[in-house]
Design brief:
Elements: H1 9-16, H2 20-27, H3 35-44, E1 50-52, E2 59-61
Antiparallel strand pairs: 1-2
Helix pairs in contact: 1-2
Length: 70
């Protein structure tokens, strides 16, 4: 996502509040990334995350869901 938007690692990392080293580790699959961080990266890069119910085909955006952890 970052590369398609031509964002540098250090710039994106700073915008979402993580270190450039951590972002590099996420991209190189050297560290497990949390869903919240994936969501922040997607949002900064202009992507939306959807959940699709396999049976009903209902589609939900992350912003549609009420999250207990917030």
């Amino acid at each position: 996502m970052r590369k398609t938007k031509k964002l540098k690692q250090d710039v994106l990392a700073k915008e979402i509040g993580i270190s450039q080293q951590n972002l590099s580790r996420y991209e190189n699959e050297q560290r497990i990334v949390s869903f919240d961080t994936i969501e922040q990266i997607a949002n900064k890069c202009g992507y939306e995350i959807y959940f699709i119910n396999k049976q009903s085909k209902d589609k939900f955006k992350t912003s549609d869901l009420k999250r207990k952890d917030i």
